[in-house]
Structure formats: C-alpha cells, structure tokens
Amino acid sequence: MNKTIGIFAHVDAGKTTFAEQILYHTKSIKNLGRVDHKDAFLDMHNVEMERGITVFSEQGVFEYNSSTYYLVDTPGHMDFSMEMERSINIVDYAILIISGTHGIQSQTEVIWELLRKNKIPTFIFINKIDIKTADVSSVLDEIRLNLTDDIYLMDDSSFKDGSMDTDLIEFIAEKDENLIEMYLENGYDKELWLKYVQNLIKQNKLFPCFSGSALKDIGIDTFIEKLDSLTFTEYKNDLPFSGIVYKIRHDENMNKITYIKALSGMLNVKQEMRIGKNLNKVNEIRIYNGDKFKTTESISAGELFAVCGLSSSKIGNGVGNLNEDIDYSLAPTLKTKVIIDEKLNAREVLSYFKILEDEDPGLNVSWNEKAKEIQVHIMGVVQLEILKQIVLERFNLEVEFGSCKILYKETILKGSMGYGHFEPLRHYAEVHLKLEPGERGSGIVFNSECSTENLEIGTQNLIRTHIYERKHRGILTGSPLTDLKITLITGRAHIKHTCGGDFREATLRALRQGLEMSENIVLEPYYRFKISADTEYMGKIISDIQKLNGSFRNPDIHDGKVFIKGRGPVSEFMNYNLEFITSTNGRGKINFQFDGYDICHNEEKVIEKVGYNKNADIEYTSASVFCSKGQGFLVPWDKAKEYMHCLK
C-alpha cells in the first residue's frame, strides 16, 4: 500500500526533527541528524542548514510492515506558506506538529484551515513534552477551542493487544448510534471497531492526538505503529494513468526535474505522458529519498516520482488522464524590484529569476518595460533574505531588493454589460459580456449563456480561453482584476473574414469596456490577528489597532490577560510586530495570518500614488474597431454600444 504523509507545523515546533526520527526508526536513514547540528536529512540546502528552518518541501521514503511511505517535510515559516500548500494537494494524511511549550500559533491555524479545506485526514503530535514548561492538557484545551473538538489523545493504553480501551470505545460510540447498539448487543469486535476508527479518521470526523518528544525520542515508536494501523489508501492501478505536478527543481546543470504524484494507473519508462496539449516521452523515472534517487522502470498509483526533461511542465499541472490544473489558495501580498549592478545584462538576470519562478510560481517574475526593472512577488521580508542567498549560491550573482510594496487588486461593485468589436479590413469579431461582482476570494469565473445559433461551441470555448489566458488589469490602478463573474451573452463571427486573434481582440475590448461602464474599487490584502498581553497594555493596543485602521471584537479578559482578535490592512500592520513587542516590554504575543483581500481603506491615496493612466495603457483598450467603406475606425468605449451589430 502506497501512502503519502505530510508533516506540517509552525516554525520551531520540531517538525524536521520529528521527520528525522521517523526515517531513522524505520531504517530509511542510518544516522540520526539534527537541525542544530546542520545535518538533518531533509534540510539539505545550505540556506536551510545555516538558518535552521525548512524552506523547501523535501521527501523521504521508508517501508513499514506492508506499506511504502512517502514522507514530505514542509516549511513552517509564514513566508514559505505557498511551498507548504503545494504539498497539501498530494498527501493522503497529514501530521500536524504542535509545540507543547508554545501551543497553537498563527501558522498552525493557517495550516489547519488549508488541511480542512482540502479534507486531508490529520494526526496531531504534541511535541517537546520533555521541556518543563510543556503542558499537554493546556495544548489539548487550545486545540478544542481553536481547531476541533473531535480529538482523542491516544497513548500506549488506548490500544492493548490491538483492542481499544473503554474510554476510546465510548468516545467512538458517541459518533454513531448504530455502533453503540451493536456494542451493547454483541460486545466489542476488534476488527469492526478498528475499521470504523480508520473510516472516521479518513472522513475527518476523528483526529487522533499523540504526545512525545522528537528530540528525546519519546513516543515515536508508538506513533509510527498507530499511524500504520489507522491509515489506508485505495489507489487503483487498473485505471488510466493520471497525476499532478507538485514540485519542480533544477539540478546543478540546470536540467529541469518534474516531481509528480501518481493518482491512478501505472506509468512505464518510454511511455508517453500528456501534460496539457503536449505528449512527452518518459525516458527516466526517479524515486527520490532526500537528495538521492534511484531509477525504476515503472511506477504505480500512490507513488511520488520525478521525470527529467519535461520543458512545458508547471506546478499544479494535471498530467495523463487528469485534465484540470490545481488552483492554490495562498498568494503573495508584496512586490519588490530586483536591484542589480549596471554592468550586468538585465535579460540574463531575468532568465535566472524565471528558473526560480518555475520552481516557485508565486514569485510571478516580470519585466517592467517602463521602469526597466525586474519585479518579483513575495510573502515577506524573510523570503527576500532567503532569495538573495539562493541567487548567490545558484547563479553566483549578487542582488539587492527594493522596498516592499503592497500588491493591490481591483474588482467591481455593480454589474454592467461590456461590448467589444474588432473589424479592421478583412477581420471580424463581436463579443457581448455581462460582468457581475463575485464573492470575495472567488477570482475570475466564466460561463456562457450564448446560443450556438450565434456562436458555435468552439468559438465560445475560444472566448473562455482568452478570459483565462492572462491576468486582466483594472482601470483604477492597473492592478489585477479579481472577484468577477463574466458571462458570455452573445457574439458574432463572419464566415469569411473572422480569423485567428479576432475574438481575442473583441473579448479583451468587451471586458475593458464593461469595466468602464461599472463602479470599480481597489482591494488590498488583510491580516487576521490574535493578540494576548497583560491588561495594563490593553488601552495602548486598542489605540494602535484603531490608528492602523484595524477592527476587532470585544476583548476577552482572563487572569490578568487581555485577548484580542481582529483584522486590518497588511499595509498598516506589516511592521507593527516590532512596535508591539517594544510597547509590551516583550511580554505580549501577536500572531498574524493572511485573511484575503477586501476594500482598500485608503483608495484615493493609493490611486494617486500609483498614477495609472488607463488611456495610456497600450496593452489594454476599451475602444472598439469598426469598418466603413473599407477603412477601420476607432469608437471610444462610451459610444461603442451604439455601433454594435448584435444590438441592431
């Protein structure tokens, strides 16, 4: 049985040390490394060894009983959350490590929400119980308060000779009235109850909890044994091959390595594999364990493997029989420019950053022609520090970065119709779109209500492609559009003159014209925060939140402590952490997590500062092109409706 297990945690909870113990106990590695000794098996990059944090998701492989396990160690720092999220989509089960001394922290909740969103069965391990300040009972209370009530602390006494103890039986029985009736009538059936517990875990109705110490090797054997007995997978090899690209790396010779999770079927060397519209021959299949790999002639469903030379592959691609790509939730909130020596070739430097973007799509590397600079998107300043070191190590290139700027977005507040017409000589296309505000965080959603009598299905699909093939700019700041429902109402083609690119022009003009007809707003990223401090600092904290344009719930006060939950703009709160620590004399605690985009609190100021001129943006225009007497002529957006052919 193939099982992929992901290990997740807030930074410094002991996640990598835990992974090291699992691999050591299962004899996957011969020597037990340590993060502080800079020899942990899965922290194999220099930047990770030096900083003592996980930056890249890496995998180990081990055998236990009759199963093959793929163990994925993920980053715990907030700035590398996108790397962590990409691992969630390939794991069968998650292990969430929570520090017994610090309890639930901001990133713990981010991880938990992503695991629940993706319905990943989760085991919880309370770590560092060897430390005097550890308090398992307190952490369990935190879990019940902030994460879920459906936990059960399992230890050696929970399963005696494979049978459950009375407390566990009663806990499970509460989940199902039929089960408790069977128990009262027929007594305890070991196999039946084990299967029931397995299914409860699989269905995210039960979250087994364990405690121990990864550093001191306490509770590791018990955990491995229970993990093995309480988990199962049901991959099918008799189906067509399908999989998902979850990671891309480049070796020292810049050869591209594509990492894939096989979801169904089998794949052999020399077999062709579809990625998008391309068929790629698989010349070599690798199974990685840390930075070492072995080659194999074939793989089966449930395995993690790597293939070299797939130039068109992108992270999130569905491969084989899986046609859909993965959409990830997390996105950068900041952008910055790359500062390089004037003697360097900027285009060459751009090519290096494009390699990094291939490995981390969230960087969204671009060349700003107007400013003549490379721009990248990031999650935070720690990521910039790491990025600087990576560029030096891999490309022998010293770079600096400019100050971080907020990534804004735009949307609309009310619906409108958008009309686009493209008819220079010997070309023809017309598109009518209905624009409506979408739910916050929904992105761009397209559907069609167009009759096939007006546009054939192939043309409607082409318009859909043009909607999704690029990011569209708003008209206020030129920021990316989001939270928009776009519906194709009708359109028109010409049997003789419509040719390639005509509907692209008409579609983009219709979208832009619809924005001009609507009420547009700027969106900005928000943080959700949790604050705890002595009550003497409550007045100052509340004053700070209000000053920073934040909002908050009524404070809770317990045992001389105040607890405040709220949210506020990233632009205002991104540097507040240091001020907070100073103002509370280091005795307060504040946790931030990304809370999506919402209406910008200082829109006019942002619009003025950005200085975007919608009429000077040559890549986007809301004007339509019509033809009269063999000559094309432009019609501005506010007059275009009068000229549309479909409305006559």
Brief synopsis:
The chain is α+β, with helices and mostly antiparallel strands and 648 residues long.
Structure characterization notes:
- Helix 12 packs across helix 13.
- The model has no long low-confidence stretch (mean pLDDT 91).
- It is globular and about 90 Å long.
- The chain folds into five domains: 229 residues, Rossmann fold (3-Layer(aba) Sandwich), CATH 3.40.50; 79 residues, Elongation Factor Tu (Ef-tu), domain 3 (Beta Barrel); 74 residues, Alpha-Beta Plaits, CATH 3.30.70; 140 residues, 2-Layer Sandwich (Ribosomal Protein S5, domain 2), CATH 3.30.230; 83 residues, Alpha-Beta Plaits, CATH 3.30.70.240.
- The strands form ten sheets. The protein has a seven-stranded mixed sheet with strand order 2-3-1-4-5-9-6, sandwiched between helices.
- It is 28% helix and 31% strand.
- The protein starts with a strand and ends in a 5-residue tail after the last helix.
- It has 18 helices and 36 strands.
Would you spell out the secondary-structure blueprint of this structure?
Layout: E1 2-9, H1 15-25, H2 46-51, E2 58-64, E3 67-73, H3 81-88, E4 93-99, H4 106-117, E5 122-127, H5 136-146, E6 151-153, E7 159-160, E8 163-164, H6 166-173, H7 177-186, H8 190-202, E9 207-211, H9 220-230, E10 242-250, E11 256-264, E12 266-268, E13 272-275, E14 278-281, E15 285-289, E16 292-296, E17 298-300, E18 304-308, E19 318-320, E20 334-339, H10 346-359, E21 366-368, E22 373-378, H11 381-395, E23 400-401, E24 405-406, E25 409-412, E26 416-422, E27 429-437, E28 444-448, H12 457-468, E29 484-492, H13 502-516, E30 520-534, H14 538-547, E31 551-552, E32 556-558, E33 561-569, H15 570-573, H16 576-583, E34 589-599, H17 603-610, E35 624-628, E36 631-635, H18 640-643
Parallel strand pairs: 1-3, 1-4, 4-5, 5-9, 6-9, 28-29
Antiparallel strand pairs: 2-3, 7-8, 10-11, 10-19, 11-18, 12-17, 13-14, 15-16, 20-22, 20-23, 20-24, 21-22, 25-30, 26-27, 27-29, 30-33, 30-34, 31-33, 32-33, 35-36
Helix pairs in contact: 12-13
